[in-house]
Specification:
The chain is of the alpha/beta class. 35% of the residues lie in helices and 17% in strands. The chain has eleven helices and 16 strands. Strands 3-4-7-8-9-10-15-16 form an eight-stranded parallel beta barrel, surrounded by eight helices. The chain has a four-stranded antiparallel beta sheet with strand order 5-6-14-11, with no helix packed on it. The chain has a two-stranded antiparallel sheet with strand order 1-2. The longest helix has 17 residues.
Length: 347
């Protein structure tokens, strides 16, 4: 029995580690390196029809920061508290070239008993549907549609759609489900208080799974130069975000039930973080920044950590999903600590 395998709807992954879309998966070489390292799936760098979104990639910039907002060297051995602050764009190739490469990537992935997932970020609903149909016709086996890309508000007008309302998630997902029969994953933003409602909307409209949740937009002043770091607002994510994602996983699981598959992203840096996400209700975990900043060995080491944990507990990945989430109590149910707080009152 493979303790690592997990079902996402009708799709069986050999393990729950999914490499999220990023610059390291623009080229086929990076995708194959991740597959060789053991990833259950790799999400190919996202595309859409917008030339502005492609041009935006040429202005991409990154900085790795510690918890004091000091810049760290990009030496592929970041400390645990490292967070990534960056602006980015979409895949630089025209759609037909992207599609040809994505098709090749998924054929290669099948040889590793894995998947290369096509990823679209909408600029317009009409073109999104057109591209989804072409992806299905190409033979690619899974489509992820990211409606929560954090850069949406800062990108050029019409380049990227960022959706925060359940009604829009329902509209987009229904249109996609009517257009294609392939497994459909919807990736949602973390920049909303409607997350459980958005997941419910995606589920009811026919999405096979959802991913929670995209990184946050942030602004960081550089106290030395007194200028905006990277010159503008940018997406921000790190291990500090893991508890926030876990919170919404639990809240959403409580609303929609235990059977619907959710995937987690934003905060995972190692195998133990995958475990934390799964205990909170995730069936699989997308890792992006950890691999981008730490290298492909993060994949194999994380899978090894997860497998060792499962063996030590004599459970499977399926057993792990939601254990902690299903034991959450309200504040009212907590034990009375009397005047315990006085011990922590400053003199």
């Amino acid at each position: 029995m493979n303790k690592l395998s997990i079902n996402i709807g009708n799709t069986k992954l050999k393990n729950p580690l999914i490499c999220g879309a990023g610059e390291h998966f623009i080229e086929l070489d990076g995708i194959e390196k991740a597959l060789k390292a053991g990833a259950g799936a790799v999400v190919i760098k996202s595309t859409n029809e917008s030339e502005a979104a492609k041009t935006q990639l040429e202005k991409t910039d990154y900085v790795l920061l510690n918890s004091n907002f000091d810049k760290l060297p990009w030496d592929f051995d970041p400390p645990r508290d490292a967070s990534l602050f960056n602006r980015s764009g979409l895949h630089p190739k025209p759609f037909d070239e992207w599609l040809e490469q994505a098709t090749r990537a998924d054929k290669i992935a099948s040889k590793y008993d894995a998947f290369a997932v096509a990823s679209l970020i909408p600029a317009s609903l009409e073109k999104l549907i057109d591209y989804a149909r072409q992806i299905e016709n190409s033979g690619i086996r899974i489509l992820e549609v990211n409606v929560g890309a954090p850069h949406g508000e800062e990108a050029a007008s019409g380049a990227i759609m960022l959706e925060r309302e359940a009604s829009r998630i329902s509209e987009i997902t229904k249109a996609l489900r009517n257009a294609v029969e392939m497994p459909l994953w919807i990736k949602l933003t973390g920049q909303s208080q409607e997350i459980p409602a958005m997941v419910t909307a995606a589920k009811q409209a026919g999405a096979d799974a959802v991913t929670l949740m995209g990184r946050y937009m942030a602004f960081i002043p550089d106290i030395e130069t007194q200028k905006p770091m990277l010159g503008t607002h940018a997406a921000y994510g790190g291990p500090w975000a893991l508890p926030l994602t876990c919170h919404w996983l639990v809240k959403t699981r409580n609303k929609i039930g235990r059977e619907y598959p959710m995937m987690a992203t934003n905060g995972a840096r190692c195998g133990e973080d995958i475990i934390r996400f799964m205990l909170s209700g995730a069936s699989a975990v997308q890792m992006t920044s950890a691999i981008f900043t730490g290298g492909y060995n993060v994949i194999s080491s994380s899978i090894n950590e997860l497998e060792e944990y499962l063996n030590s507990k004599n459970i499977t990945c399926s057993d792990l999903v939601g254990i902690a989430a299903d034991q959450v109590e309200t504040y009212a149910e907590q034990e009375n600590k009397k005047e315990y707080w006085r011990d922590f009152t400053p003199e």
